[in-house]
């Protein structure tokens, strides 16, 4: 009975939590949209109207940023706000994460590699960029150094280490699948090395 209950939880819980998170996001955005409509004097209460409004606003903002003057003005405001250290730290981190997630139309620089450890084992890492910051290159010994991210299991945090390119073993594995492998400590995988959506 205990095994059956555990099996049921393992199958139902991920789906239930995922649906709950998406529903919570939907309700929050819908509430924000309804609030905007009420501020405009529009009193229509239909489930989803606020969510549609927020979606349309985001789409319009996306179109607006394709216009040079608006993009320039936003960049200027961004530069002024970045003068404040606390805002710079918080906003910069969020912007970097958003940039990592939104890679449409951009060359995917992230490459999956294996790095040999002192005990003879290997760890999965990711080359995030081929161009380390100049201060780091100036401080390091001569060589072709690249930043390699070692993802920590069950969290988005990781450790970035500078490794010589010659010490890396390239792996024909997509960034998304390898990231999923690391995040789940190797649980989410199939015999051929491809992620199995049914096991996530």
TrEMBL record:
Q: Which InterPro entries match?
A: COV1-like
UniProt key word Transmembrane helix: yes
Protein name, per record: DUF502 domain-containing protein
The superkingdom listed in its UniProt entry is: Bacteria
Q: What is the lineage of its organism?
A: Bacteria, Pseudomonadati, Pseudomonadota, Gammaproteobacteria, Alteromonadales
Chain ranges passing through the membrane: 12-39, 51-77
Could you tell me the keywords of this UniProt record? Membrane, Transmembrane, Transmembrane helix
